[in-house]
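worker-03 picked up job from queue 'complexes'. Input manifest follows; two sequence lines, order preserved.
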Amino acid sequence: MTNQVKEDIAIVGAGPVGALLAVMLARKGYKIDLFESRPDSRTKALYQGKSINLALSDRGWLALKAIGLDEEIRAQAIPMTCRMIHAVDGSLTRQPYGRDNQAIWSVSRAGINEQLITLAEQQAGVEVHFEHKLTDLDFDSGTCSFDVSGKESADYHRELIFGADGTFSKVRRLAQELPGQRISYSLDYMPQTYIELTIPANSDGSFMMEKNALHIWPRKNFMLIALPNPDGSFTCTLFMDLQGELSFESLDDEDKVSHFFREYFPDAMPLLIEPVATFMAKAPSPLCLVHIDPWVIRDKVALIGDAAHAMVPFYGQGMNCGFEDCRVLAELVEEHQHHWGEILPAYQQARKENCDAIIELAKRNFVEMSDLAGDARFLLRKKIEAKFSEMHPDLWIPLYSMVTFSPELPYAQALAVGEVQKEIMDEVMNLPDIEQNWQAECTYRLLYQLAQEKLTANILPETVSNPLSPGSSQTLSKKKEVKA
Amino acid sequence: MTNQVKEDIAIVGAGPVGALLAVMLARKGYKIDLFESRPDSRTKALYQGKSINLALSDRGWLALKAIGLDEEIRAQAIPMTCRMIHAVDGSLTRQPYGRDNQAIWSVSRAGINEQLITLAEQQAGVEVHFEHKLTDLDFDSGTCSFDVSGKESADYHRELIFGADGTFSKVRRLAQELPGQRISYSLDYMPQTYIELTIPANSDGSFMMEKNALHIWPRKNFMLIALPNPDGSFTCTLFMDLQGELSFESLDDEDKVSHFFREYFPDAMPLLIEPVATFMAKAPSPLCLVHIDPWVIRDKVALIGDAAHAMVPFYGQGMNCGFEDCRVLAELVEEHQHHWGEILPAYQQARKENCDAIIELAKRNFVEMSDLAGDARFLLRKKIEAKFSEMHPDLWIPLYSMVTFSPELPYAQALAVGEVQKEIMDEVMNLPDIEQNWQAECTYRLLYQLAQEKLTANILPETVSNPLSPGSSQTLSKKKEVKA
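worker-03 finished. Artifact:
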């Protein structure tokens, strides 16, 4: 590829990431064709087999702010300031996500997707092609072949192609079949799968449970969660092993399923719309991790979003991370003055290790959500961390906050710092009678000493502020390398 | 699949594993079609792009003994009883592989493959089809479609299909594309790649270096190795990173390559046939790891050998492990009385964790071969282990021997026991002045105490004898679970 300034770009996949990328690149002056295999959901109702709502947080907001769409989307979004833990006995525990009403936001996946597509269509130079299903891709010439509405075929020759076509990316699959191409790849199915259920609104449109919370019923090897929708309903997701002693496969008749809901979710069961019938009728959806290296093939095709780094939903970062891909790429377009021969390698360099880190963090978070969230010692650990973080915000941002509320802190650094924090907290939690003494001054003296010793050697005083909250006192190094 | 006794079986891939499997299953009474994409190497000379010779050891011999081919192959094989380490200054160090002249054997890959194919053809019910390239596979009906000699196509409907088609298995790739099939998969390219070089025989047909050794020039991030051939020559393999500061890519002109050989392999350079020209002319071959789960798809198709578990060659176990797959499968055919509905799940259950273990062990062994083999402290550690193992053969078999010379010990157990041994040896090597005191009685008293404490709790006294050497005193538990 030459370093010419203006290129014609094809983006395969008009999900939230592909549509956002189209907007961003169009605004840099590129001519964009955005291809989507499905019909236009704005004119044809369709269930995409994906989660109905999802959690948008500061990394996502930062990318949406860059295209000026943040306020429009925030108008429809519901802030969730805490986890609401539902114990088996029905008792509730509130766990704030951060400080000062920091929140993650429940948004409609379809809604945000449609708003982004509409905005893309409004950009000069963007053309959106629905019902275009990629069938082949010539990685040398840049020719993309599509099956159009299942009727005809069409070829498009473009100088640059982005695969934004999700976890089971066709672009990626075609790349893997290139002879002689060294592509390391993994796709791992998690033992957990999921189905979605619904808690409706009250007849007056109000919420049946606390609105501004992400509700969790942690049951160790499985869990139910619920996110609020603007219409007063909650979309619930039941995560559980596909196979095994207690699993989607073992619960194979209505009696067992009914007993299961009564035993483990007694408070939710009466609220859910036909949980037993829905459970019996729905095939559980898989959860996968995808790793691939390289992301850029023959200087002509690049992967982005889930196509490059599918993760599990347990950190609420899938879409946020894909949006961050777009934001970083757009910044690199400027930085390298439209020289794609430099932009694409820099893009992979900037994103790969960070996406590997959030894939790992998301995977680990299942245990935190489904098991530890109900564990007293774990909650105590969180309380100590929160208190210490308030005392020394320059020295300690809890891992969840680094990932969720520090949108300029690279994921890889969050992971590395988090591991040192874990070591430190393990030591603190081993103090005798920590349950009684957790508020004692000596606890925080030890924490300060350990943090000084183990963290500041690695974390330089360069600060990361949260660009979404200019007055934020959050500070942490941007330095990437942490000797964890 | 029904549990009927006799089935028609297709085996895709007539490499050593596919051919051995054909012999074994034919002898159990099955009708076998063995398909190979390449022409018959016995009538057409062809370079297969694979290593010319490889190391056969006790797991391989055990499988060959089961079909009575061991003596015929041993007649052409060259025992290698030690590593011969070549330092940069040309000095040599001999590291025995085991006790009492225990050896690994250099065999010709093509030779053993051809002997197995010839034996397969001699079995009643086996038909071998060369130049049949698999193009499609219907996993429900069992129909295999082939491109025949690049001219016509042919379909074969078989009740059971084995994919023995190697690291880049087409059977595996077709399985991955099945809609709705949960297949976890990874293919990882190692940074190292390799080319082959040759040291010829002397004019009288004798060997230019010690015949009964595997020669290694360990240079930390890269290495040269050499295995003897029956004609007096050595086949050498240079393993080195494809990219980086010192790599196949960085050595991009004859001067650099010549300087490289002179600097790092001064004793080998004058023996090698045109090393510089060969280096410049050959494209380095990749090394990959393959993991896939499940190995059995729709009760009808199963993967075996590299198609199921490709590994790097650094433990000399690739073919041995594939042969073990066949031996174990054949034993399960008897055990489950030809009920394939039971055999295939039992096969995966028996093999998967063990193949994962040897993939991991082989990967780790690059460091041992290319770096540690030249390290004085590492050699001391090996000497202490060897001495202790001689004193207490029931308590301690060195890891290399568990993998190589204990053919009935599962790889996964070797890995787990090896990790406990490593902990113990780390402690022993930390003794003050161990370099001076390594022969002192107290060293072995400590070792005995640690081994008693950490190993016997996990390793039951049930013994594993080496069925290839009936008088062997090797004993180690067959118990699979080791709390490592």
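worker-03 released lock.
The mean pLDDT of chain A is 91.
The two ends of chain A are 39 Å apart (CA to CA).
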